[in-house]
């Protein structure tokens, strides 16, 4: 015997179906956990692209009268 393994082919033990099912379920669990961790890393690592400002600059407030705090309605007869 070398390192716990028999050199005789007749003495090789096959894994039972119970052990195979356990290994399959265990691998599915590990794969599921790995996928969740990978998804969390991707979500945390995402950086939205930087947008270039338009040539005229951003216009945060409406430019027509009566809308917005810095653009009051024009009152008649003023």
How many strand units? 0
Mean pLDDT level: 76
By DSSP (H or I, 4+ residues per run), the number of helices equals: 1
Most strands sheet: none
Q: Helix and strand succession?
A: H
Radius of gyration: 34 Å
N-end to C-end Cα span: 106 Å
User: What general form does the structure show?
Assistant: rod-shaped
Q: Assess the beta-strand content as a share of residues.
A: under 5%
Helical proportion?
25-40%
What would your notes on this structure say?
The longest helix has 29 residues, at 17-45. The chain starts with 16 loop residues before the first helix and ends in a 33-residue tail after the last helix. It is rod-shaped, with a radius of gyration of 34 Å. Helix content is 37%, strand content 0%. The model has no long low-confidence stretch (mean pLDDT 76). It has one helix and no strands. It has 78 residues and is mainly alpha-helical.
Overview in brief:
With about 80 residues, the protein is mostly helical. About 35% of the residues lie in helices and about 0% in strands.
Question: Which helices and strands, and how do they pair?
Answer:
Blueprint lengths: L16 H29 L33
Characteristics:
single chain, mainly alpha, rod-shaped, 78 residues
